[in-house]
Amino acid sequence: MPGVIVTNPPKAAPKDVEALAGYGTATVGEAMGRTGFLGTHLRPIQQGVRVAGTAVTVLCWPGDNLMIHAAVEQCGEGDILVVTTTSPCTDGLFGELFATALVHRGVRGVVLNTGIRDTAELRAMGFPAWSAAVSPQGTVKATGGSVNVPIVIGGQVIHPGDVIVADDDGVVVVPREHARDAAEASEAREQKEAAARAAFLEGQLGLDRYGLRETLTRLGVTYRTYEEVES
Questions:
Q1: Nearest to 23, CA basis, from 168, 187, 149
Q2: Do residues 56 and 80 lie in contact, with contact meaning Cβ atoms separated by under 8 Å?
Q3: Which residues contact 102 (CB under 8 A, 6 or more apart)?
Q4: Alpha-carbon gap, residue 170 to 194, rounded angstroms
Q5: pTM score > 0.90 for this model?
Q6: E strands within 78-217?
Q7: 195 — phi, psi (to 5°)?
Q8: How are the residues of the chain apportioned to helix, strand and coil, as percentages rounded to the nearest 5?
Q9: 129, 110 in Cβ contact below 8 A?
Q10: pLDDT value at position 231?
Q11: 3 state SS of 47
Q12: DSSP tag of 204
């Protein structure tokens, strides 16, 4: 089936992307009702990095990175390249040369539902990357695919222009049309957690702050002394 390269898709507003960049993936995912997480298999090659940007999506064939070359042309300031394949693949589809071209275009990072290589070089140049595998295995450039079409990673649909938030914990997608709401909900959650943190520092227990003693009682959980249990 012939592929397609979609040019100039709509993107989330830069102010909403920047707002979301201030929160971790756990906060954003919880704020959206525990949605958007792309799965535990996507791991960062670096530590201590948090980025947010608008998705440029790529659908490649396994072992073939032709469409990443095509996608570079569609990337711009503030984007994050998001790559998957038509069937599972762990080959190293992306490396330092691709990152060099993307840095020139202002791209903030890459998320690969496949393999990556040149990880030492990528860390040295400070280019953030999350991938499903690390592999030196090379690829060909022989099969057409698509750029800026909806793709699926970890059961989540990613549209071009959606917001990608990534950090040490993983990767979350925020639908473009919900970016503002997600940013506001993340701020509210951050404030709620700050209040809880202050309370815990003063010795309050989560059991009391969240009313969980009543939950334990409702579930039939009882307290018994050691002696009572052993008798």
A1: 187
A2: yes
A3: 72, 75, 81, 110, 127
A4: 22
A5: yes
A6: 79-85, 92-94, 109-116, 129-134, 146-147, 151-153, 156-158, 163-167, 170-174
A7: -65, -40
A8: 35, 25, 40
A9: yes
A10: 82
A11: coil
A12: -
Q: How far is CA 22 from CA 56, 72, 166, in A?
A: 21, 26, 11
CB-CB contact of 186 with 17 (8 Å): no
**CA 151 – CA 25 distance, rounded (Å):** 20
Residue 13 CA to residue 2 CA, distance in Å, equals: 31
Identify the CA nearest to 40 among candidates 175, 171, 174: 171
Instruction: Convert the pLDDT of each residue in 2-33 to its tens digit.
Output: 799 999 999 999 999 999 999 999 999 999 99
In whole angstroms, what is the distance from residue 231 CA to residue 226 CA? 9
User: Mapping DSSP to helix (H, G, I), strand (E, B) and coil, where does residue 42 land?
Assistant: coil
**What pLDDT, on a 0 to 100 scale, did the predictor assign at position 1?**
52
32-70 core/surface letters (b: 16 or more CB in 10 A; e: else): beebbbbeeebebbeeebbbbbbbbbbbbbebbbbbbeb
pLDDT of residue 2: 76
Question: Tens digit of pLDDT for each residue in 26-71?
Answer: 999 999 999 999 999 999 999 999 999 999 999 999 999 999 999 9
Q: Can you tell me the distance from the alpha carbon of 50 to that of 40, in angstroms, rounded to the nearest whole number?
A: 17
Residue 63 main-chain phi, psi, to 5 deg: 70, 20
Joined together, the tokens standing for residue 190 give: 């951050």
State how far the Cα of 200 lies from the Cα of 143, in Å rounded to an integer: 56
